[in-house]
Amino acid sequence: MINLVTRNIIRFLVLVLFQVLVLNNIYLSGFINPNLYILFILLLPVNTAPPTVMLLSFFIGLSVDIFSDTGGMHAAASVFLAFCRPYILKLLSPREGYEYITEPAIKQLGFTWFLVYIFMLVLSHHLVLFYVEVFRFSEFFYTFAKVLLSTVTTVIIIFLVLFLVQRKKE
Amino acid sequence: MRNLFLFIWRHHFIFLFLLMEAVCTVLIIRNNNYHFSAYLNSSGALTGSIYAGFNAIAEYFSLKEVNEQLSTENARLRAKTKYSFSVYNRGLFRIGKNVYRQQYLYLEGKVVNNSINRRNNYFTLSIGSEQGVKPGMGVISPDGIAGVIKDVSAGYSTVMSVLHKNTRVSVKIRKNNYFGTMVWDGTDYRKATLLDVPKHVELTRGDTVITSGFSTLYPEGIVAGTIGSFTKDQEDNFYVITLNLSTDFGKMDFAYVVVNLYGVEQQELENRSDND
Question: pLDDT tens digits for A58-77?
Fold first, then answer.
């Protein structure tokens, strides 16, 4: 078992490279671009201090920004996600708390918990990302459709990756 | 004062959030600012070489198409050389230094990174300031116009694609020379919008739209696209025209940077008359 810090560093590098080299070249029906890299933030241990999560989010967002020439849009969206994360964790906390759990995993917390957790956070990220990118309200509903479709796509891809990776650990 | 610190400490998470979003906002604004040279982008040494390495593998998959594209272009250029014209009236024509001057040069670059699915798209070329690229130069693809150089490093340059919120290209309709402005509305990477063409002009679907040559970016006559559909705006006197872009941004492999040898001279002159 690799220790927690090394595992997260590897995850950071792999997800950023996969995002900029592979996923940024994928356009489903012309405009849906899955953002898998935020899986890094979602999978940080539950008891990580929120300010730490926020700094890490900023850096992973900024890394993606540097590669895709988007200034600080991914960083802004990721920081917002990190801001929402503690509140959503509190909202969804199971009766016995998270004490014995390190990283969020489908097996321990259940499929429904995981789906709600990921969907809400991905939605918060994509809302900021797409509205900052467009930055005008004349295209409001078109952008909103884009947000919803991209959120669903990202959630599906996150689950596919988790099923592939988390099964192998057993 | 002590209470203030206590207040900040109690809500440090929210303050950290606001601080970091402020940093992000500064980064976004710097990036959008056209002349502000941002250094955190894909023309940097590390990011540029990662993209170039990955592209070296990926380019094999499109070799066939690139070859076809280049040979069509070669054929078109061959038709324009001096040897393709026969002299039929020696008395009247004289081709020489006194009649023609070279105004445009082209620098060829490979597209190592490209995006089409965002509201504001950019691509990266594998040539930079060492090859003579400067911010603000126009970029064309073998099929038509492509964008404007935004930022350069020694070996790479980033290009603001035509698929961008701030795109405004001065174009004209080839058959009758009426000019308009081309913008991109962000919905489809194969289509753009042509504005400011007066309603009395006769249009047909399929008319070719070319650059006007008014700006210093592109030479006159570079194809921008063809007219796909058009409607008359009820409120004002102009058409709303949808263009089918001639450049397929989805599979761009090469692009040419346009060096306008008299561009600076034209701009300086125009600025002088603006100041009056």
Answer: 999 999 988 887 888 899 99
